[in-house]
Design a protein that fits this description.
This protein has 215 residues and is an all-alpha fold. It has a domain of 81 residues: Cytochrome c-like domain (Cytochrome Bc1 Complex, Chain D, domain 2). The protein is 51% helix and 2% strand. The chain is built from 11 helices and 2 strands; from the N terminus they run H-H-E-E-H-H-H-H-H-H-H-H-H. The protein has a two-stranded antiparallel ribbon. It is globular. The N terminus is likely disordered. The structure holds heme C (HEC) (2 copies). The site of one heme C has 24 residues, from helix 7 and helix 8. The site of one heme C (HEC) has 24 residues, from helix 7 and helix 8.
Length: 215
């Protein structure tokens, strides 16, 4: 009891400190995007990423951004700009965004919660679930849930996988080192290198299908 009440008191003190900063949320900085500016940019993102940012299977698979972790989104936009992550489309999109616009877009996208896009093959969902929850110890593959969370929601720089388009996840894991971690700086993409190498193509497809149906 004593420990709990001490912890509560501590948390309350921290909260008081955080919220004591005068007018924190209300005062807009001069560079914050206007509501119209933000809306126009979002409409642009959604022409590719889907009307509710649920993703879209076009000529390229467009990843779901809905419910994605804001820190991850900001990290990836920076990676496109610095060409650590290669994608010609997203370089052009990202390099014109102000940091304030990126923060506002990421905060908005986090709140969206459309149903998963669906359409993934259902033949290996059981294997996908096993890989996600337990990994494959015999191939040194860790459980995805250990980092991406038991429901695949991610946290901070670790992305949400729940509801992500099957075709996007499959392609991304297959091409990992071709698309990410370019340049001399080692970034967060290095964490996924051993895992993507140690999974076979059919195991990648199985886990990609499994996460695509998580809500
Ligand atoms: C012309 C189409 C197009 C537009 C417009 C577009 N994107 Fe993208 N975006 C893509 C494609 C294609 C990818 C997948 C890149 C890849 O395969 O690595 C992507 C990837 C991303 C990613 C990485 C997602 C992940 O899961 O790693 C983020 C973040 C992103 N886009 C944000 C945005 C934002 C924010 C906007 C609007 C300002 C936007 N995009 C507009 C096509 C587009
Ligand atoms: C040790 C922690 C860790 C484990 C275990 C892990 N991941 Fe990741 N994963 C990450 C991090 C960190 C990133 C972000 C990489 C970056 O910044 O480019 C990531 C990114 C990804 C992405 C890219 C998502 C996107 O939107 O582009 C996919 C797909 C992914 N992981 C799938 C998996 C799967 C499937 C497993 C299990 C087989 C797994 N991960 C296990 C930490 C982990």
């Amino acid at each position: 009891m004593k420990v709990i009440s001490l912890r509560l008191a501590f948390q309350t003190a921290i909260l008081a400190l955080v919220f004591a900063a005068p007018g924190r949320a209300e005062v807009k900085g001069p560079t914050d995007p206007s509501p119209q500016g933000l809306q126009a940019k979002l409409t642009y993102c959604k022409t590719c990423h889907g009307l509710s940012a649920e993703g879209y299977r076009g000529y390229y698979p467009m990843p779901r951004l809905a419910g994605q972790q804001p820190v991850y989104i900001e990290n990836q936009l920076r990676a496109f700009i610095e060409r650590r992550r290669t994608n010609p489309v997203m370089f052009n999109v990202a390099h014109v965004l102000s940091p304030e616009m990126v923060a506002a877009l990421a905060a908005h996208l986090k709140e969206l919660n459309p149903a998963p896009y669906g359409g993934a093959p259902k033949g290996s969902l059981a294997l996908g679930k096993t890989i996600f929850e337990q990994g494959l110890p015999e191939s040194n593959v860790p459980a995805c849930s250990a980092c991406h969370g038991p429901e695949g929601n991610g946290k901070d720089e670790i992305p949400r996988l729940a509801g992500q388009l099957f075709w996007y996840t499959e392609k991304t894991m297959t091409n990992w080192t071709k698309e990410r971690g370019h340049g001399s700086v080692k970034d967060t993409s290095a964490i996924m290198v051993p895992t993507t190498h140690d999974l076979s193509q059919s195991q990648i497809a199985a886990v990609a299908a499994y996460v695509s149906y998580l809500k």
